[in-house]
Amino acid sequence: MKNKDISFDTKIVHSGEPDPPIEGAVNVPIFQSSTFEYTGQKSYDELKYIRLNNTPNHLVLHEKLAILEKAERAVVTSSGMSAITTSLLTFLKSGDHLLAHNTLYGGTADYVKHDLPNYNISTDYINVLDPSSWKSKLKSNTKVIYVETITNPLLEVGALDEVAKFAKDHGLISMIDNTLASPALFCPIPLGFDISVHSATKYLNGHTDIVAGAIIGNEPHMTEVNSKLIHLGGCLDPNACFLLNRGMKTLSLRMKKQCSNAMQVAEFLNDHPKVIEVNYPGLSSSDSHDRAKKLLCGYGGMVSFVLEGGEKVADEFMGRLKIPMCTASLGGVESLVTRPVQTSHSLLSDEELLIAGIDKSLIRYSVGIESGDDLVADLKQALDKS
Q1: 373/380 Cα distance (integer angstroms)
Q2: Which residue intervals of the chain are DSSP H helices?
Q3: I need a labelling partner for 320 at 20 to 30 A (CA). Which of 45, 90, 216, 358 fits?
């Protein structure tokens, strides 16, 4: 059966797996060896070595991820930030200019602001909801445009198809952080994006037990990415590769449940009198709803919201929740809750938070696979006591 004839649910289980299986093993064993026997390889990149990201554990993931996002090639990395920084440094050099969405994951935003200038790389920010404003930010040295599929933490979905076209029209490399959507909901490469990056720590793995990243795209870009990754040393260890491959096999099941639960949570919060703002692209009232419906296969497992009363009330509310743990990160089978200004976006200044539109009391809820009714009941009891 050809890959094009197989559904996503089947591909995610079987794609990339060795045929025939290694020693008959149903799951790819962990190859806990830093190096492998020389067997006449013709180039350095062909040597089997963990830092070169080409052990059997790596190769399974590379093929699986490329197939899932309908791309030619993929590589895994040691973290989501490794994937992001490696990709940016592959296509940006001293004197270049970057266009970036004005609401980014906090780690990315901090890197763009504080580290890229050390390489003499400048940045201007765009509103991905307003394509008419992008051209005014272009410069003769603009090389890359960088956006997120679903933004963190405001959960906006921009004019992604127009971003890809804009990049092509102006000779830019287009990059997109697809973490919050995952390939279960969106495949950027067929839409025209050059590079897709992931924090595989999140939905791809889904079990909150590893840190990993991924970079996905077509040639010749991925050859350049792989070379830069090797030089920067952001390789993923074999144990993490094994856990990521295992976790990915349930991605489709998890995302369906998390999307369903998130919609239930968002609708409950949207109707509650103590909630003054709810961000979720699945709500018909969301400015992103029509774009999300057009571009994505679901609305994601994240909800963010603002309560009446400010930061103190938000913290007290989170403390009364019984099911989700209050912590950083997202995308696991368990529900998690946080205020981004305390965790993922704590490096941003008050001015940067204002520009990004992030209220200090904003609560981000990563919805897990628990019973949706139980999650809503838990939210209700915490709100009733406020």
Answers
A1: 10
A2: 8-14, 56-68, 80-91, 106-114, 160-169, 188-191, 221-232, 238-248, 251-270, 289-295, 311-320, 350-356, 372-384
A3: 358
Of 76, 59, 71, nearest to 16 by C-alpha is 59
Lowest-confidence pick of 41-45, 52-56, 205-209, 241-245: 41-45
Q: Is-catalytic flag, 105?
A: yes
Distance of alpha carbon 92 from alpha carbon 112, whole angstroms: 12
Is residue 202 part of the annotated active site? The answer reads yes
At 325, the amino acid letter reads: M
pLDDT at 1 over 60: no
* Chain segment 312-326, per-residue pLDDT in tens: 999 999 999 999 999
> What is the rounded CA–CA span in Å between residue 153 and residue 280?
10
pLDDT at 183: 98
C-alpha 20 chain-centroid distance? 32
Q: Choose the catalytic residue: 51, 137, 293, 320.
A: 51
User: What domains are there in the chain, each with its CATH number?
Assistant: 3-248 (3.40.640.10), 252-384 (3.90.1150.10)
Q: Give the C-alpha separation, 289 to 285, whole Å.
A: 7
Phi (first) and psi of residue 145, to 5 degrees: -120, 130
Phi-psi category of residue 189: left, alpha or beta, with phi > 0 → left and psi -120 to 50 → alpha: alpha
pLDDT digits (tens, 9 = 90+) for 169-188: 999 999 999 999 999 999 99
Residue 286 in tokens: 């969301």
Query: What tens digit of pLDDT does each residue of 345-371 get?
Result: 877 788 888 777 888 999 999 999 999
Which listed residue (48, 64, 73, 105) is catalytic? 105
Of the listed 48, 143, 202, 228, which one is catalytic?
Answer: 202
Read off the pTM: 0.95
The question of whether 51 is a catalytic residue gets the answer yes
Mean pLDDT of 47-55: 93
Tokens linked to 306: 């603002």
Q: What's the CA gap between 299 and 293, in Å, rounded? A: 8
